Fold Cytochrome P450.
Amino acid sequence: MSLPTRSTDGGAKSSDIVRINVLGTNIVVTNTLEASADLLDKRSLIYSNRPTHGLTMMRDLCGFDWAVAFAQPGKYWREQRKVYQREYHPQAIKRYRRTETQAAHTFLHNLLASPEDFFRHTRYVLGQVLIYSAYGVKTKNHDDPLIATVEHGVEAAVAAMSPGQFLVDILPIMKYIPAWFPGAEFQRKAKVWRKSVHKLLHVPFTLAKNLQDASELPDDCAAKSFLADVIPSSADPTYMEYVVRSALAGAYSAGTDTTVSVLQSFFLAMTLYPDVQKEAQREIDSVCRGRLPDFSDYDALPYVHAIVKEILRWNPAVPLNIVHASAQDDVYRGYCIPKGSLVVANIWAILHDPAVYADPESFCPSRFLRSDTNPTPEPDPDAAYGFGRRICAGQYLAHEMLWITIASVVAAFDIVKAKDEAGREIVPPGEYHYGFMQLPKPFRCEIRPRSVEHEKLVLGAVDL
């Protein structure tokens, strides 16, 4: 069974809700914000389940059954959600701002040293923030073994989730086929990926425990309060440690590729839409006046916030959300939705709905800002983070990471089209790798300091 990974045609030509049957499985695809919110938000008690099939490769064979994203509602799921609500609500994440700013400055240094490697640098800057904020472990460079360990785990998870790639997701009984059996390549892949997923779950948490035992675990990381207080005082410390370990690993695995996709799309957007970049630079220059942005400017740079929102809308990292399943029979607009039906929100169609977003294919951050010429801003692209009880718990941290990184880059650098040997501008085609997650294909652009003074700002940016 394979679903499209990116589509607006279904919603435009058919309906805002489409019901299909694939091999006896009922699938409901919602193509508008209204239909998606009606089912997944307003009826979240019914539509918060995960499918009992379709994730065999991921959960059973690759060992990703611990991730809250794939857990069924119940005690374990609720306990993990409590971890996220405690550590990643809007007030709690403010303690990570120092780390986010340090990482943004490191990113600027890396861009100055090797701008052609900006794709690689995006992975490091976000990994640096997520690992430290979760585990209190500082990573040193791109080749840090911990970065490599967790990245391999995330790569395994993303590969195992690719829609329609593995027949075992359609015929779960195939999971009992031994790896040596002819045609069982999926088992051989799963064996390798399972090891990577196991390391993602255990290695960074063990490092955090070692730091705690040595009284060296910093206070500004999520692991600190859990290891120092919550786990030891729990009625079942072993179980609670498993919950916390799984939640922190889940935060990293859910946050890396999605946020990397957004940051790489930012470089594409700035290359293709130079006027947007110039407007952001005017705003930053008027507020910061010869310094790099920091979180004291958070409320004073609305256009930078709008850029973050527009990237999420323009090319959402996850074009189809993770499948929900109905816990009971339901009826919606005359549609009978039997228990066990799969419900998929078409995020791409929702965020490119011309009835909601004017000229949806264009990159226009000002659509979110109120002005004399735009008295009614278009709605924020919250659908990019999902719906209901399955909404991304790290959305506030993601926005802050993206905001400080993007503000810092725009303040210090010009991002322009590269030129070929004849001096002609190279226009990036804007192509993406499509699957469960979409990531921009590598493209050329030129990243250079805006001036000698801006280069000095980058060189002078040091750890806070």
About this structure: Residues 162 and 436 are 5 Å apart (CA to CA). The domain at 9-460 is CATH 1.10.630.10 (Cytochrome p450). The first strand starts at residue 17 and ends at 22. The chain has one domain: 9-460.
